[in-house]
Batch of 2 targets.
Target 1
Amino acid sequence: MKHARLIALSVCTSFAAIGAADAAGGEAKDVKHHHWHFAGPLGTFDNDALQRGFQVYETVCSSCHGVELLSFRNLGQKGGPFHLDGCPAGIPDSVDCSNPNENPVVKAIAANYKFQVTDGPDEYGEMFQRAALPSDRIPSPYPNEQIARLANNNALPPDLSLITKARHHGPDYVYSLLAGYEDAPSTIEVSPGLNYNPYFHGDLSQNLKPEYLDEHGHAREGVDVPLGGLLAMAPPLSDGMIEYTDGSPQTVEQYAADVTEFLMWAAEPKMEARKSLGFVTLVYLFILAGLLYWSYRKIWSDAH
Ligand code: HEC
């Protein structure tokens, strides 16, 4: 009995704690729903979007965010943005371009990447920098968390390898955040180094200007606390900043959608294989169910 009461009490307090955490989190605007090529049970990645998305990541996001779970070779694996079935003209027959380590596009991306790889120690015991190879992990911008924070107003730019899985409404959220920066509402104060975004979770009741607060420090009657929050990332994208060679629009929305599709692939590179296996399994089960029903009818048809 005593135990039952204890359990009931701890369940109640946990719910209360969850409620409080929710309330402290503040409200953000509902995410924009983008029409994703990879959505739905049969959805696949759009390879052109993946290539453009990597371009956006490499040009812009990689200055602050790593994708530490990805190696360059992953970009050339089956289903990856730069996978090749055969070699482009001019490459000797002996090369197997479907092998990510020999894929010439992947090799060039690794060799020209904006960060080199730390290797070593050499014969003198020193670490050294060298150009990346397809087998290397994609290097992150900062050597450790402290330097990352120092460079970003004490905020930590998260690794983006799994970000589309780590956030509620994953891809729609990342897309909305990147394409959704707005001017801060006039009722709030934004400290230097922070930026307003209606899709970021925060509690802006603490940021209302003094004239909108009553004597207890709460919002005056009729004053709404704006949706959204303040984050240390300034709007990273702007129209026309990256040149696309395939004629796609060079807009913030397009860049945001492409980089999100790339990050979705990064988080689940085997999604296509998983979906097609699921589909084949369903077809198999459907046929099996039909056969079982037919044999059931056949076996029992004489038994009355
Ligand atoms: C100049 C550095 C910088 C650049 C460039 C940059 N970011 Fe960020 N980003 C940050 C920082 C710092 C944070 C942490 C913000 C905070 O918690 O206040 C962040 C946070 C994020 C978050 C997490 C938001 C959340 O819900 O916690 C995502 C997603 C993100 N960035 C994606 C991107 C993408 C995609 C790009 C490229 C288009 C990009 N960032 C470019 C610095 C940067």
Note: The longest helix spans residues 271-300.
Target 2
Amino acid sequence: MTDYREPHVTAELADYFTKREAARTARIRDFLNNLTARERALVQDIAVMGYVRGSMHPKNEEIPLNKAILADVVNACFAFPDLYPAVATIERCPGFPEGCPNLRLVPADPPKHQGGVRCGCADDPEDDE
Ligand SMILES: [Zn+2]
């Protein structure tokens, strides 16, 4: 592995950086471990799609406002319900599940989720094949 440490970083400072990185890693682990499975799935869906959409953003264009970013990310999750099931399974028609005329199978993706069905009533009909 490449050693990126600068020559002027003392052993004491390097030790401090190592300890801070371990503390940040533990804080992230504890935060994620304290979420419910549902919260964790939602955070993951939105974070992953946000990363994907952000990586597609043109470099010299202005960053949209938070509200527009959120709408874009949710819309993009709706377009790929099998990949972002935590978001897709929130949207339901009033008859869901028994009275839903458009139940869609969500394949299991352990350990993220166990699969099941979702409401497809709001899906874009052009997405059906
Ligand atoms: Zn429905």
Note: The chain is about 50% helix and 5% strand.
